[in-house]
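Anyone? Bumping this.
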Amino acid sequence: MSAPIIWIVFPAVAAALMLLLLREERATAIIGCILCACLALLAWGLSIDTAYAIGATSFKISPSLDILGRRLSLTMADQPLLVLIYISTAVWFLGSVFINLARRLVPLGLAITSVLVASLAVEPFLYAALLIEMAVLLSIPMLITQGQPPGRGVLRFLIFQTLAMPFILFSGWLLAGIEANPGNLALVQSAGILLGLGFAFLLAIFPFYTWFPLLVEDVPPFIAGFILWTFPTAALLFLTSFLERYSWMRTSSAMISVLVAAGILMIAIGGILAAFQRYLGRILAYGMLMETGFSLLALGLNSFSGVSLFFALFLPRLLSLTTWSFALTIIQKKSTSLKFSEVKGLGRIYPFASIGVGLATLSLVGLPMLAGFPIRQALVETVAQQFPSLILWIFLGSLGLTVAAMRTLAVFFMTPAGTPWERNETGQQSVLLFIEWGLLVLLGLFPQWVVLLTDRIPVMFQHLGQ
Amino acid sequence: MSRDWRWLLGILAIQYIGVFWLTFAYWPIAMATVKLVTGWMACAALGITQINISQHPVRETAWPHSWLFRILAAAIVAVASLAIAVRASAWLGMNLSTTWGSILLMGMGLLYLGVTAQPLRIVTGLLTLLAGFEILYAAVENSALVAALLAVVNLGLALGGAYVISAQEKGETA
């Protein structure tokens, strides 16, 4: 038995079986959720490449699997990340059951997750670009609603993510040349441009971000949320692998400047554009754009604390995004559209969902007492020490998202005086939203719980931040 | 550049013969044949989908309808790609015909992506762009795993495109 079989092949096979055999929403979600939780538990409890004895028999999980002359390798250092990946997938699957999206999300979501884990495990790591593209292609059926023409967001998502692959693969070849001949500045420049373009497409960096808001209009917000969580996270981890692999890159002042500039640009643009939106889904999209910006900024700090913050950002983001997209999907089922004019006054009809949207947005803004605050505060403090002039742009971006959150809450509760309160969420939806509210507050009060889950992840990137 | 899907896919299938020929200069015939077979399978998948849907007149809003414009745009891409190929072939250490063939296909794919919003044409544009890239990449990378993954990506793109086209058809007939 090898680790790639457990965490890559097995979920992929399970996804295929679920797609072919399961027709019932609840069963699909429950099986998917339990499977992911078990995989996360295994990653937490088992040790790869360590001998175990059960009675007279002993076994060892080997770290690698050879395929067509190349290798998939998952080591002990990767296990904390596997825990995070499969826990986050389980959280998405759990939400899907209460909004009848499990059949659409779970089998393909599991297949995408297994392919993206393969992208972390493949050696040489450069081939991850191909695997990420395969995951993009797997997501297409999830994004298409039968009986409706595909939206521009889906097509643009496909185009931009596909365009990323050639740039990254070719830059990888140039980077290998740079290792052999580090003095060749023309080669460094070419590789840098190609790599920059590749990651600009992959991470939806300005001006290639347009599929973010369009996608949220095309598909149910929960599905869009899953995509906006999964692919930027995979791309960020891929970028981290590049920085880990090439020492000249992580020590290059130009590369650090590019990371910081891209991060600040995304924070400022995301926040400012969010402030002017009149469609709830688009605010979510711009909020996620800002989150990618914060991750790039954390990487750009080029310190161990920056790397720790980079990984610590994942958990509050996951919680905010699942709450936000889950609540929006509930509201969308009632109002058909998420335009301000359509959702006006829905706060009294869907109080749990409306408060969920508000809390999730404010958590991403970094409001004290909410999950996003402690990590964001630590990040902004570090940025203020290293790049004091950039704080204004972070402030502008955060202000923009705060304005968007205030406008959203105002629209939700803009009702004539005397309008009675109702609760139209189902009992299960209300319970899940209540748990999510609670977690958003608890992680704000006890940020050490976030660190508990993510502090071991930087071990797999030993050279980063040193 | 054709608006009739039969011509479009026919030309795409012929294009894959060219891709095979240019890849064959760097790869053994067995691996180069993978490109040809995969390309034809992609064409077949898209063709079968098109056969099974009712034919509507194509409503393309972004693309200027003049033949002259299309030929001019393609000519500009051809000339620009030749200019780039002359320098790139020396830099990459590849022969000019392979480099030009590759860059020309990438340029044409990008041109096509820039002027269409129809799923079939978008997929065709992406396949053309990837075909161009694959020629160039074949010269520098000969791993069997990469060949297999690129084949899967091409087929996945065609199947994903077929899924989108059929969903669009259902949407229009609903």
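Late reply, but here is one note on the structure posted above: Strands of chain A lie at 51-54, 57-60, 64-67, 70-73, 122-123.
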